[in-house]
Design brief:
Blueprint (H helix, E strand, L loop, with lengths): L1 H24 L7 H28 L6 H22 L2 H14 L28 H22 L18 H19 L8 H12 L5 H13 L5 H15 L1 H4 L5 H4 L3 H5 L4 H20 L1 H7 L3 H25 L3 H16 L12 H5 L2 H29 L1
Helix pairs in contact: 1-2, 2-5, 3-16, 7-13, 8-9, 9-16, 13-15, 13-18, 15-18
């Protein structure tokens, strides 16, 4: 219900904006409440119900509760919009009823709806009495019923967001005691050499281990297959598909940069170490960049004879961890970077929009010098993350 209420609140704002636009454009000075509200009730409400129900279902499934769920949700929603978005959002109904009205008035209409700016000289107005609600009511009720079915399917899966399933809650006192003795032995063995493990290189290696820790076996297998594919696929497939999908899998790892201390409650412990600002932030950044280079090692080797392609690879390897560090420090969560990265990945490498092409997958972005802009922005993101972290540390000290 909370998800639904938030989306309904946004829908109410859009409804008020629609009423304001009616008077601003001056098409009709008469405000008809029923004609204004009905499209929102029949078309917008079922859609927001589906979105809310899907969010609840993903939150109740442990495997889909984190980064993997966010990526799958984004891809699934994109596919649904591409495959049946016109029907889901009511564009098909609007086009059908408008076509019937135009044909009844003897006007030619070949179909299609333009959502954007068009030359005003080519725009012509016509009389349209609106939707025939009884013809679309049954289908819209089906969408609303589907959302209720999805919510009902999520009920038995709800476990109060427990991180540990009930079937794994078995405590073996002997095993735990043995593990504690082993941990104590390792601690005593390495305590005298603790200074050796506090250099920048050891911090970077530790950060890389933390970034790669905690993923599923399927994730490691997929990462390895994509890493190996970089040596064998064609150069076009490498630029357009393999490298973008490889770095997409590492979104879960990079999203912890700058936010791990807040996620796991170790902020006070980290801040008590010598020079926690520069050493911690720069080691996180170095680990993220090094991880990008290692994950794209095959691409880096293949790009050596092509300096222009190497520029795009370097831009992505530097900009993506810098962005992750900045957003993680700023928001203290992983979702901000995951959302921004998914949008960049979808608009840039996947659809070829040059301005969003972080990896230089499209030739147009390389010719326009887009990678240079991302390289130039990266130091500013790092600087802002340092300033933000310093502000947070001072604010924490005041409290």
């Amino acid at each position: 219900l909370s998800n639904l209420c938030i989306l309904l609140l946004l829908m109410g704002v859009l409804m008020c904006s629609a009423a304001a636009m009616l008077f601003i454009h001056g098409e009709d000075k008469t405000l008809r409440i029923t004609e204004l509200v009905m499209p929102f009730l029949l078309y917008s409400v079922p859609v927001v119900m589906l979105i809310s129900a899907a969010a609840v279902l993903f939150a109740c499934i442990g495997k889909l509760r984190g980064t993997a769920g966010n990526i799958i949700y984004f891809i699934l929603w994109t596919v649904i919009i591409a495959a049946g978005g016109s029907r889901l959002f009511g564009f098909d109904d609007a086009q059908r009823f408008m076509a019937e009205s135009l044909h009844a008035q003897g006007l030619a209409y070949e179909g299609g709806i333009i959502l954007g700016i068009r030359d005003e000289a080519a725009i012509e107005t016509f009389l349209w009495s609106g939707f025939i609600w009884r013809k679309v009511l049954a289908e819209r009720i089906m969408f609303a019923a589907a959302s209720l079915a999805i919510t009902a399917a999520a009920v038995p899966l709800f476990d109060r967001f427990d991180q540990f399933p009930r079937k794994k809650r078995t405590y073996d006192a002997n095993r735990l005691a043995k593990q504690d003795r082993k941990t104590l032995y390792i601690f005593r063995r390495k305590f005298d050499y603790s200074i050796m493990y506090f250099g920048h290189r050891s911090l970077v290696l530790t950060e890389i281990k933390l970034l790669l820790k905690g993923h599923s076996k399927a994730w490691y297998m997929t990462v390895f297959l994509l890493w190996a594919a970089q040596f064998f696929v064609s150069l076009h497939a490498l630029r357009s598909w393999v490298l973008p999908f490889t770095w997409l899998l590492y979104v879960a790892a990079w999203s912890e940069l700058g936010s791990r201390d807040h996620l796991y409650g170790t902020n006070e412990l980290v801040c008590s170490t010598p020079s926690p600002l520069f050493r911690k932030q720069l080691s996180c950044l170095s680990a993220g960049i090094l991880l990008a280079c290692i994950s794209g090692f095959g691409t880096w080797i293949r790009y050596i004879p092509h300096p222009n392609l190497m520029l795009g690879f370097f831009a992505g390897a530097v900009f993506i961890p810098s962005l992750a560090l900045f957003l993680g420090t700023l928001t203290k969560t992983r979702r901000a970077f995951q959302l921004v990265m998914l949008i960049l990945w979808y608009l840039g490498p996947l659809n070829g929009l040059a301005i969003f092409d972080v990896t230089g997958a499209a030739t147009a972005s390389l010719e326009a010098g887009v990678p240079l802009y991302y390289i130039a922005v990266s130091p500013f993101l790092v600087l802002l993350s340092l300033l933000g972290k310093r502000f947070q540390m001072h604010l924490h000290m005041l409290w």
